[in-house]
Design a protein that fits this description.
Two copies of one chain form a homodimer. Chain A has 320 residues and is α/β, with parallel strands linked by helices. Chain A folds into two domains: 121 residues, ATPase, nucleotide binding domain (Nucleotidyltransferase, domain 5), CATH 3.30.420.40; 174 residues, Nucleotidyltransferase, domain 5 (2-Layer Sandwich), CATH 3.30.420.40. In chain A, 41% of the residues lie in helices and 20% in strands. Chain A has eleven helices and 13 strands. In chain A, the strands form three sheets. Chain A has a five-stranded mixed beta sheet with strand order 3-2-1-4-8. A five-stranded mixed beta sheet of chain A has the order 11-10-9-12-13, with helices on both faces. In chain A, strands 5-6-7 form a three-stranded antiparallel beta sheet, with no helix packed on it. In chain A, helix 1 packs across helix 2, helix 5 crosses helix 7 and helix 5 packs antiparallel against helix 8. The radius of gyration of chain A is 19 Å and the shape is globular. At the A-B interface, strand 10, helix 8 and helix 10 of A face strand 10, helix 8 and helix 10 of B.
Chain lengths: 320, 320
């Protein structure tokens, strides 16, 4: 019998979001738990518990997709490395598949979100686009000719560690002035704090439980209320983001760039300055072709939706 | 009857190189003429004459591929724009096809060269790589999952206009510090001249008929002879080239990067500093995976070889 429901789980540094969807992309059940701040085994247990509780709501699902904030190998079974979770060469899909008795595939969270937007969101009209996720860090998922680009090892789309300003602040990756350092949610907060002199401190935000969400929401709310400092912080993030995106547009020539991730909930506050910066960089390119700049539609569920669909496809939307 | 020979022509700013090859990629006839420095019509006439003379050597060829130093639309029939040739929205394939009575397809020269290396050269072992062509300008052709990446409009691979240093010298594209400005054959000459104080002037080189070849050859010869200024010029070009390539590696995750174009005839003089710069940028990436850096094998015929093969494939090596 063909399954009528799919299961997708998105694991980030702070929370695990799971959903059951029907083949139209409608979420029929959704659940969120906090990510255990402990060892790999307790995180795996939390994912197992999440999958089990989703299966209670959809006992005909045959596949489980897991979107991970990390680098996933091309076979979609191993977490090669995660900057936020304590995994290195972790055979996560193998382990969970054995425990659940179901097919489990992994995908990078930005790739999964890009696929979600392609199937059910802002990317439905485009076979060549990329999604840039702007959260605590920056990721990207690239769809080309209607297929998800993975690269030779599964690591394609690391826009966050391309360089906008080689004289910029140092990045943990070893380079300076990466998009990640200049245009992420953390960068938004830093710009805001620097401009304000004193400000919303990281420790205050952390006490609220969700550091980046609180930061993003607070600054977005201030910008919506017309706070010039918050607007300037968005302008600076948009400037750097547009420049980073411009380089990827030159190499990839998409029909559209879609902005997603937590910070993109700010909508036009982020899209406007980003598009303006991008257009300033693309004068020659745009004398010939146009690239649309859109905001993602699926919100925080994009990764779970995308990876649920990816898991349902035999072999996935890849050429090989 | 299946054709046993293919025809490929590569048109650049200074010369037109045509070849007839057999399906093993062996060149059975080759011819070069100077590019007319006049109007679009006289260039088209030169291409027509070239195709006719190649057909005399291979009267069973049914397709003609033309690699163009410019932007080609996705249908492979129109030159959207060329920075070096007087074409804009030129229906070149249509015009030549009507005059020759054969199928004619166009392709960007770096894309064509990448495909040539994939089929017959240094890219034969790789389904995910990119070729960077370092000539008077910088181009790139991206092969992903064994297919040539074109992008939404056919313009993918414009690595030359990604930015290495936003405070660098201005580029005609409107940005500053593009790879093209810092790492091309022209940049090599400029670095050399600046370091030497006085030097090989553009006018002297131009008098010899092939500005970039003379420049490249002269500086390469000096570097081979141990000239510290020439070696430093290669070091500076390699440093910028490695940084630009690093950003594309982060986004594309290739198994290999292949250096081609006229300047790559310098071999290890260019490859060594470029690889060293790239490795410095890729510390985090390379903690997980390795990317090879190779020199192209096909020399100046890469584009003609590649486009001849592309033209022979019904629909081309694309997913759509």
């Amino acid at each position: 019998m063909t399954p009528t429901h799919w299961i997708g789980i998105d694991i980030g540094a702070t929370k695990i979001l799971g959903c059951v969807l029907d083949p139209t992309g409608t979420i029929v059940y959704q659940k969120t738990v906090l990510t255990p701040q402990a060892d790999p085994r307790s995180i795996e247990d939390a994912l197992f518990d999440m999958a089990r509780s989703l299966l209670v709501e959809s006992n005909d699902a045959k596949t489980v997709g897991i979107a991970v904030a990390g680098w996933i190998d091309r076979s979609r079974r191993t977490v090669l490395f995660s900057p936020l979770l304590p995994w290195s060469m972790e055979p996560l899909a193998h382990n969970l598949s054995a425990r659940l008795g179901l097919t489990v595939i992994l995908e990078n969270d930005a790739n999964a979100a890009a696929w979600g937007e392609h199937e059910f969101g802002a990317g439905q009209s485009f076979d060549d686009f990329f999604l840039v996720t702007i959260g605590s860090g920056i990721g990207a998922g690239i769809v080309t000719d209607g297929l998800l680009l993975r690269g030779a090892h599964g690591l394609a789309g690391e826009l966050g560690h391309t360089v906008v300003d080689p004289n910029g602040p140092p990045c943990p990756c070893g380079r300076r002035g990466c998009v990640n350092i200049l245009a992420s949610g953390r960068a938004l907060q830093q710009h805001f704090e620097e401009l304000r002199g004193v400000g919303l401190s990281v420790s205050q935000a952390s006490e609220a439980g969700e550091e980046d969400a609180v930061t993003g929401y607070s600054i977005t709310a201030a910008a919506r209320a017309g706070d010039p400092i918050a607007l300037q912080a968005f302008a600076e993030v948009g400037e750097s983001l547009g420049r980073g995106i411009a380089d990827l547009v030159m190499c990839h020539d998409p029909a559209a760039v879609i902005l997603g991730g937590g910070v993109a909930a700010a909508g036009e506050l982020l899209r406007g300055p980003t598009e303006a910066s991008l257009r300033r960089c693309l004068v020659a390119h745009e004398s010939v072709v146009q690239t649309e700049v859109l905001v993602a539609l699926l919100g925080p569920s994009a990764g779970a939706l995308g990876v649920a669909h990816l898991a349902s496809l035999q072999g996935g939307p890849y050429t090989t």
